[in-house]
Input
Amino acid sequence: MKLLVATGNSGKLKEIRRLLEASSIEVIGLEQLDNAPEVIEDGATFEANARKKALEMATCSGYLTLADDSGLVVSALNGAPGVHSARYAGRQGDDAANNARLLLEMAEIADEQRQAAFHCVMALAWPDGRCRTFEGKISGLIMRGERGAGGFGYDPLFMVPEYGKTMAELSLDIKNRISHRGSALRQVIPVLQELADLN
Output
């Protein structure tokens, strides 16, 4: 069974492939499609964006499609950057600029008020228009500087208290086990396995 993962983010695709490698599901990315449409993520919530992306890609490709929208929610910033996480500093996917803006915005925020959470909503869509969503979350703290060379996005700034490390310092296996995306995907996997068994 083929599963299209509707993301242009190679880091996300790598994480999802790793989590599904023991299954009989073949994960394909957008680069394997001819003329994949660009989906404008203009929803007000992670769920709205994930559903839109999954449904549009499933319809145009004919494949069962998994899409996610995820981001960082910082309590002291009233939930920002939220759905704008990937373009917080203006340009889509500019991790360095996004991290720099976050550090600047939080420069005056005390250590005990730097709580944040990564949120993820995954949408699994069928070409016939059916769609299911799954949510994951991990709580942590925003550091005052970057630590670690792994991961992507805000990972070098996001401290996981239980490990005393940032997401960028954790191994991919640990990150997949505890992350917002890993949590959401673990809810998707039984559904995918059931579908694969039916094929």
Notes: Residues 180-198 form the longest helix (19 residues). Helices lie at 10-20, 46-61, 95-105, 172-178, 180-198.
